[in-house]
Amino acid sequence: MHTLGERPYQPVIDEEHLAEEFRALGVRPGGVLLTHASLRSLGPVRGKSRAVVRALRAALGPEGTLVVPTFTPENSDTSLVYRRRVQGLTEPQIAELRRRMPPYDRWRTPAVSTGRLAEEVRTHPEALRSEHPQTSFAAIGPLSHRIISGHSPRCHLGECSPLARLYEEGAQVLLLGVGFASCTAFHLAEYRMPEKPMQEYHCVIRVRGERTWWSYTDVALDDSDFAVLGASFEESGAPIGTGRAGRADARVFGVRDAVDHAVAWMSSHRPGRRQR
């Protein structure tokens, strides 16, 4: 029995056990896997985030490719992260914050907002990272170049992004300790709607060595209803592997299944949207 103040005992998980659990969930050897993860939800893992990456790669096998989002909203003044940061600041303080916002560097800019697993993949010596200054992806494996290359800086998550390549490759999604609200693949459906609202985005980049604010127009991304969309997807009968990895609830499913369902769902649940 635990006395007051003691933490419950949690057995440490090893990477071999995790790899077996990923396979049991349905991760395909030789496949492509887009992973969203809360490592804290796993419980204690021997080797921490590095071991989780090794376990995912073991489940995928040598011909498999691991992909993670490595988003960087910190360099934009049109992001939710920025709006939260400037709340309550004075005009001089905001001006100073903007002056210090670093330009995107695909090799160095950390993926603070997408968690420890994303950072572990991003900093892996074999990793490739896409060039988009706000919604980049990183990948390790034989199909990394195919998935990462050609990410237009004017296309967050549409046909000129890694999401479209993942759809074409028949990739899977792993939600590890997170829900459908974190399912980036749903965003591809927003680009496939016949009528879609557009938005102007601003971020800091480097052009010929100079720090520069850059503006571009793209689809107005909206994940506010992704949890409801995900519940509909689960109820649709689509093949979704569910279970646990470590102490975390987990789901594995196909990118194509998720995007195709999202297109149909958005068509009936997001009516009347017009381009701004």
Over the alpha carbons, how many angstroms does the gyration radius reach?
19 Å
Classify the secondary structure makeup into a structural class.
alpha+beta
Our measurement of the CA-to-CA distance between the termini, rounded to an integer number of angstroms, reads 61 Å
Task: Please outline the major beta sheet.
Answer: 7 strands, mixed
Strand content: 15-25%
Across the major sheet, the strand order is 3-4-2-1-5-9-8
Helical fraction? 25-40%
Name the average pLDDT.
93
H and E order: HEHEHHHEEHHEHEEHEEH
Shape: globular
Strand count: 9
Count of helical stretches: 10
Given as residue ranges, the uncertain stretches (5+ residues, pLDDT < 50) are none
Describe the structure.
The chain is of the alpha+beta class. It has a domain of 186 residues. Helices cover 33% and strands 20% of the residues. The chain is built from 10 helices and 9 strands. β6 and β7 form a beta hairpin. The chain is globular and about 50 Å long. The model has no long low-confidence stretch (mean pLDDT 93).
Helices and strands, with pairings:
Blueprint: H1 15-25, E1 32-37, H2 48-60, E2 65-69, H3 80-86, H4 91-100, H5 115-122, E3 128-129, E4 137-140, H6 144-148, H7 162-168, E5 172-176, H8 186-191, E6 198-207, E7 210-219, H9 226-235, E8 240-245, E9 248-254, H10 255-269
Parallel strand pairs: 1-2, 1-5
Antiparallel strand pairs: 2-4, 3-4, 5-9, 6-7, 8-9
